[in-house]
Specification:
The chain has about 1000 residues and is mostly helical. The protein is about 65% helix and about 5% strand. The strands form 3 sheets. The protein has a 5-stranded parallel beta sheet, with helices on both faces. The chain has a 3-stranded antiparallel beta sheet with strand order 8-10-9. Helix 18 (about 400-420) runs antiparallel to helix 19 and helix 39 (about 810-830) runs antiparallel to helix 40.
Length: about 1000
């Protein structure tokens, strides 16, 4: 096996700095002893080698020796090795100050002995002093003695180290000693004594973090970043650098890790065992335990990395006292350690240690011990609660009992589903399926039970394609008379993303309904009703959906809201709440809150998270709060409910698209698109692309807008809802931000064709997907924007407002557009008071979002307001022009100024200051434009950034900054920044033009960044 050595030191900068400081002190005549401690394989030798290289570069005299593991330690072995190195380098101890010790040193280095030396006095003190004098000779700027693995050293060497530690401070000698910090030994006793009297210092090495492990692996493989599948190979390294190198080397040697032109890839057909170097080390330690102790530790390894010691007497077939003695011995040789949080538990210090022990067992011994371990676990924990069920299943599988193991894994999978641990449940059920497939035969129906549960977990995790294939296979395997099970399976199939499989869902429901009618069973009938309600909701038959949902809820209430009835009630209330959400957020909240109480009381983990999502959505729609969504998103990821998590990502991306932070909006939308594609949710994928188009539209990038819109249309070709969004929302908004109002009107007119399809086409035939199916802050923005454009153009508006209200798009951001549209209509009708009131309502609705939305709407309605004499169109346009100039929307700024000129209003020249100058600064002679610069200086902007924001040259900014420095009496720009920060402080935002003074929802951005939402998952 070729070595795989890391060429650089990873994540040890602080520790190396401490060792280098010791060398610095030695160069100044202040030597000391430093003990480098840590677990085996943690990188002590690697760190010391780096320090040794530094000492050698400085010209230090360096001696290196190592203790070795031996049943009978060789006296002075590390000291002898160090001195032999000096002799090989041609050093002879005959200089003044050391010559008197040559006879003693000659007992360790034969070539230094002389015939006339006679009997030399030999003791640790003599050897220690000789070493200090040799390393302190004036020929070198300092001396370094490195002694490795002192935990294995003989008592004489330990005594020498004590002398060196006590006396190095008066010399130019540094002693670096490595040892295992927790392994009992004379060296450990010495270390405690030396540190107690401050005669030595300690540098303790911790294990590497997962991130550092990734960096180390990348350095070993000579790549910028390790692919995710390669990182999974290192899951057992426990942060030990030695294990990282050994695992990578073994994987390359076995062919599991292969280097191809496109990079490193994992061959899933090859499984690499524990590296032989690690197995050999574990064998050596176990060999010294004795027969009974070995049996106990091997039995512990069979139980897992962490184990309950009370199970060991039965598994190892020894007494309790023998077990305790064995554990004590294993602890002394660094094999195991107690678990602090659990008085009855121990764990192997490294997962590879446990794996190495198990890999050394012959199959018959492993099977026998596993069977006894399973019996012990089942006897000690009746019913196998919590993790004991999975452990018992693993032991039964290792014992060669796959049927028993599969039954236990089925139980574990169902429990995980109940507790919303979807990822764990899926893994358990897939293992059960594999065991049954490998078994020569199994009881009839067990495989169907496993696959039924697996369908549920796969559906909840968003793996819809797998669900469809497995469901088809399941239905084909059912017996001809198992009607009830067939009906339940068809209900599951119809409930899995019916919006994308309407025909299939309708077929499944028809068969299930016929079976339910024939069997006349309340549970089956209720489940069919609630699944049919979901289908009706998707197809837009809201009245039918509500009738069926309330009927299934009533049946669940009659059944006592326990067992199946609790599940049906929660789902029915979810349907009722979603219908209420279209027009009545309060009614929706009441339905969801009742569903949450039932789910919480009955321990329905999955349903509880789903209902929490719906409640958090109400908070978002009603109050603009996002904290609930972020909390549920975390819960969904932890539980493996990726369909819910992806929907929340779409909601958050939608909210960000309404803020000033288009960068984060794009990142979140792209991440949502990727996640939706992974789970096969085409609807969310298309909407995520639409959100990307919106962000590009705000930036004025028409080419990117078209690419995003075309991408969304390609995901669901010909879908009216998607076309309405890409044409009536994405392209319209893009045209408006370029101030191409005519093109926006044309797009809105084209969108009217899709509006007609959405509102009048046979819904069941083509599939209706209401905006409220994925409730976002500005769901169905196309409806509201169309109403605003229709009103502003003078071509209508009343019908468009009614349509927006009909489809449930009259909420949140949309309310702003609809209120401005209503203001135009009221002003046209001569009701100036109502028009002004509606305009004020619109501004309030837009307030939580980026200021440019309000300015954009006012730019569209200002001419109507001027003609009708309502609102405050002149201040609106002045503020909008200044804000658009600062946000980089030059065409919109110019349009606002043009409307003012047409109205006969004096317009400030473009680029003139817009900020209000406070009295105390006005007294200093600071102008409005200088105040613009001053406010941006307070925010920490560079001259270049200020120039971009104010549309002036950097040279002009320099002139303004110099003027501000002089007028405020500051020494320079740095002092001006501090002056501005002090004087403006928290009022910076209030003094800035609104396009700069407001940004994305702060709570959302803080929490998104804090939780590293791009890692989701980064990732």
């Amino acid at each position: 096996m070729e070595p795989m050595l890391c060429p650089v030191l990873i994540d040890r900068r602080t520790e190396l700095r401490n060792l280098t400081s010791a060398l610095d002190a030695a160069g100044q005549g202040r030597g000391r002893a430093v003990f480098v401690t840590g677990d085996s394989g943690v990188g002590k030798s690697r760190l010391v080698r780096e320090a040794t290289a530094v000492a050698a570069e400085r010209g230090f005299f360096v001696l290196v020796g190592r203790a070795t593991e031996s049943s009978v330690p060789v006296p002075f072995r590390p000291i002898t090795e160090a001195l032999m190195g000096a002799a090989r380098a041609g050093v002879v101890p005959d200089a003044p100050g050391i010559a008197d010790y040559r006879a003693a040193l000659g007992t360790l280095v034969p070539e230094w002995s002389r015939p006339d030396d006679g009997d030399a006095e030999v003791s640790p003190v003599i050897f220690g002093e000789a070493l200090l004098r040799m390393l302190s000779l004036p020929a070198w700027p300092g001396g370094l003695l490195v002694l490795e693995d002192l935990h294995w050293a003989d008592p004489e060497t330990v005594a020498i180290v004590e002398y060196l530690s006590d006396n190095a401070s008066a010399t130019g000698v540094t002693c670096l000693i490595t040892m295992r910090g927790a392994q009992p030994s004379p060296a450990l006793d010495l270390l405690r004594s030396l540190t107690a009297r401050r005669a030595a210092s300690t540098v303790e090495l911790a294990r590497l973090s997962p991130r550092a492990v990734g960096k180390m692996a990348a350095a070993c493989l000579d790549v910028p970043e390790v692919p995710e599948e390669v990182s999974r190979l290192l899951a057992r390294c426990d942060g030990l650098p030695f294990a990282v190198e050994e695992i990578l080397a073994a994987a390359v040697s076995s062919g599991e890790l292969v280097h191809k032109p496109e990079g490193w890839q994992v061959n899933a057909d090859v499984v690499t065992g524990v590296p032989q170097s690690i197995i050999g080390s574990v064998r050596n330690r176990i060999a010294g335990l004795g027969e009974h102790a070995r049996s106990v530790i091997v039995s512990a390894a069979v139980l897992g990395r962490q184990f309950d010691w009370a199970l060991l007497p039965r598994v190892a077939e020894v007494t309790e006292s023998t077990t305790l003695d064995a554990l004590h011995q294993a602890h002394e040789v660094q094999l195991i350690e107690p678990v602090v949080a659990d008085a009855g538990a121990f764990r192997f210090r490294h997962s590879l240690t446990r794996s190495a022990i198990v890999s050394d067992l012959l199959p018959p011994e492993l099977a026998a011990r596993s069977a006894r371990a399973a019996e012990a676990v089942e006897a000690a924990h009746p019913g196998l609660p919590g993790p004991w069920c999975v452990l018992a299943a693993e032991l039964r599988a290792s014992a060669g009992q796959p049927i028993d193991a599969a039954r236990l894994l089925l139980t574990a999978g169902r429990r995980a589903l109940q507790q919303a641990a979807i990822t764990s449940g899926t893994a358990a059920l897939q293992d059960a399926r594999r065991l049954l497939a490998e078994a020569p035969e199994h009881p009839a129906g067990l495989d169907v039970d496993v696959d039924e549960a697996l369908v549920d977990t796969l559906a909840l995790s968003g793996k819809y394609e797998q669900v469809g294939l497995l469901m088809t296979d399941l239905l084909a395997r059912l017996g001809p008379s198992d009607y009830r099970r067939e009906a339940l399976m068809r209900v599951r199939a119809a409930s899995t993303r019916p919006e994308d499989n309407l025909e299939s869902a309708a077929e499944h429901l028809a068969v299930a309904s016929a079976i339910a009618e024939r069997l006349q069973e309340p549970e089956l009938a209720s489940r069919v009703d609630v699944a049919t309600a979901r289908y009706a909701l998707v197809t837009g038959e809201f009245d039918r959906a509500e009738t069926l949902a309330r009927r299934s809820l009533a049946a669940a209430e009659r059944a006592g809201l326990t067992g199946w009835a609790a599940e049906v009630a929660v789902e029915a209330l979810g349907m009722i709440g979603r219908i209420e959400r279209i027009h009545n957020l309060g009614g929706a909240r009441a339905a969801f809150e009742r569903a949450h109480k039932i789910a919480d009381k009955r321990g329905l983990g999955v349903w509880r998270i789903a209902v929490l999502h719906r409640l958090a959505t109400i908070d978002m729609l009603d109050e603009g709060q996002t904290s609930g969504l972020l909390d549920v998103r975390d819960l969904a990821h932890e539980a493996g409910l990726f369909s819910i998590a992806t929907t929340i990502d779409l909601q958050l991306a939608n909210l960000l698209s309404l803020s000033t932070d288009t960068d984060h909006a794009l990142e979140m939308a792209r991440e949502c698109e990727r996640e939706a594609r992974l789970i096969g949710s085409h609807r969310i994928e298309a909407l995520a692309l639409c959100l990307q188009g919106l962000a590009f539209g705000i930036r004025g990038d028409a080419t990117a807008v078209e690419a995003a819109a075309a991408g969304a249309e390609a995901v669901l070709p010909g879908d009216p809802e998607v076309l309405l969004t890409t044409v009536g929302q994405v392209r319209v908004v893009s045209a408006l931000f370029r101030d191409e109002v005519g093109q926006a009107m044309d797009c809105a007119t084209r969108a009217g064709e899709y509006v007609a399809q959405v509102l009048s086409a046979p819904r069941r035939a083509r599939g209706y997907y209401s905006p409220m199916q994925i409730p976002v802050v500005a769901r169905g923005r196309s409806w509201a924007v169309r109403a605003l454009l229709a009103a502003a153009s003078g071509d209508g508006g009343e019908a468009e407002i009614e349509q927006a209200e009909y489809v449930g798009a009259s909420v949140s951001w949309n309310r702003g557009c609809l209120a401005y549209a209503g203001a135009v209509l009221a002003g046209r009708a001569g009701d100036r008071e109502r028009a002004t009131s509606l305009a004020a309502d619109a501004a309030v609705a837009f307030a939580p979002f980026a200021p440019w939305w309000n300015h954009l709407a006012r730019r569209l309605v200002a001419q109507s307001a001027i003609r009708g004499g309502w609102g405050e169109p002149v201040p609106w346009l002045r503020e909008a022009a200044a804000a658009f100039e600062l946000s980089g929307h030059a065409q919109l700024a110019s349009a606002c100024r043009g409307i003012l000129r047409q109205a006969g209003v004096p317009v400030p020249r473009s680029g003139r200051g817009t900020a209000k100058v406070p009295a105390q600064l006005r007294q200093l002679g600071i102008t409005s434009r200088e105040m613009d610069v001053y406010l941006l200086v307070a925010r920490g902007y560079s001259n270049g950034q200020i120039a971009e924001q104010l549309f002036i040259s950097p040279k002009t900014v320099e002139t303004h900054v110099a003027s501000l420095v002089a007028k405020t009496g500051q020494a320079g720009r740095r002092e001006l920044v501090a002056h501005a920060a002090r004087n403006v402080g928290k009022s910076v935002n209030s003094g800035l033009p609104s396009a700069l003074g407001q940004g994305p929802p702060d709570a959302l951005m803080r929490r998104l960044r804090h939780r590293c939402w791009l890692e989701v998952t980064s990732k």
